From TrEMBL:
Pfam families assigned to the protein according to its UniProt record, in alphabetical order: OCD_Mu_crystall
Full protein name: Ornithine cyclodeaminase
Top-level taxon of origin: Bacteria
InterPro entries noted in UniProt: NAD(P)-bd_dom_sf, ODC_Mu_crystall, ODC_N
Length: 354
């Protein structure tokens, strides 16, 4: 008899882009950013439990395609993600992604989801969670340099988690700045459009750089950065792509996710291999110090790490239970007799003749 009713384990919940956006609106963007930050922080506290490896990257002349896997021993997760800066000029997203969460005990997937939208949220949530530990006390103004697809998420996460009151926007493309300002209108923040990066950083305690060029660049020069600020550097995320002058790194205390990956992809690829960094999980667990004083420059050299995506996948798995924000996919062959996969195929031919 053909198995026309797969078991529950064979049906995999799938969150489409449409359902992800419905879930975000149902939850509220700022609420979801806070929730994601809490999940990421929880997993940073148990960092040592996870499998950790630099992402598997396939580079080309026009971009990169990456797989980002990890496991805590009970669940396994991975994200597929690309980074193609040239896509914007062709009307396409620079970054797209999807992800999967699986049960380690059976190896069966338990969630498949879009992660283009979710990655934007988790990246911003991670930035703000880190800023909570590293930014100056009562920081209220952020310079947002690079006003592309990530900029609104970064700004709203800093508002929701760190109490940001004002954002100063700059992009070399004025249309991007206009877009960002328009999208942030009415969100409860003072939004200031700036014509130069120097103007954007005036009075800002948090400096976020998020540009897309796949090249060594100097978005912030050494003389632009004074004492006491927190730099949230999230644009550098592959070999040969940086945003900060090396002199800034020399004057900063640099905090990273996973050093073996950051030394390949982050701002510190410019520095010697023994350049000192602090792993962020050690700050969160109290093993290392974060911000010491009002004059210290802290720098989060963020390239994105698989554990943050794992946290986001866990969060979505928990949120969709009993909800209407997913469909079930018949993804796994589920024969009545697990040893008789071919028999299942034969019986399907009888049930559904050509």
């Amino acid at each position: 008899m053909t198995n026309l009713n797969p078991s529950a384990k064979a049906m995999v919940p799938f969150v489409s882009v449409d359902n992800m956006m419905r879930l975000i609106h149902h939850t509220g963007v700022e609420n979801m950013l806070r929730d994601l930050a809490a999940y990421v922080e929880e997993d940073f506290r148990r960092w040592e439990l996870f499998d950790k490896t630099p992402r598997v990257a396939s580079h080309s002349d026009v971009g990169v395609i990456e797989l980002m896997p990890t496991s805590d021993g009970e669940a396994y997760g991975f994200k597929y993600v690309n980074g193609h800066p040239k896509n914007t000029s062709e009307g396409l997203q620079t970054v797209t992604a999807f992800g999967l969460l699986a049960d380690v005990y059976t190896g069966y997937p338990v969630l498949l989801t879009e992660m283009t939208m979710l990655t934007a949220l988790r990246t911003a949530a991670t930035s703000a969670m880190v800023a909570k530990y590293l930014a100056p006390k009562d920081a209220h103004t952020m310079a947002m340099i690079g006003n592309g697809a990530q900029s609104e998420f970064q700004t709203l996460a800093m508002k929701a988690i760190c109490g940001l009151k004002s954002v100063r926007l700059y992009d070399q493309d004025p249309k991007a700045t206009e877009k960002c300002a328009r999208n942030l209108a009415g969100c409860g923040l003072e939004v200031v459009k700036c014509k130069t990066p120097e103007e954007a950083i005036e009075g800002a305690q948090i400096l976020t750089t998020c540009t897309a060029d796949k090249q060594y660049a100097t978005i912030l020069s050494d003389n632009m950065v004074g004492p006491g600020v927190h730099i949230n550097a999230i644009g550098g995320d592959c070999p040969g792509k940086t945003e900060l002058a090396a002199g800034i790194l020399s004057r900063s205390d640099v905090f990273v996710e996973f050093p073996p990956q950051t030394r390949i992809e982050g701002e510190i690829q410019q520095m010697p291999e023994d350049f000192e960094v602090t792993e962020m999980w050690q700050v969160i667990t109290g093993q290392k110090q974060g911000r010491r004083d009002d004059r210290q420059i802290t720098l989060f050299d963020s390239v994105g790490f698989a554990i943050e995506d794992f946290s986001a996948l866990r969060y979505i798995r928990d949120q969709i239970k009993g909800s209407e924000f997913f469909i079930e996919l018949d993804m796994l062959a589920d024969p009545d007799d697990p040893r008789d996969l071919f028999g299942m195929l034969q019986r399907a031919g009888t049930a559904h003749p050509a």
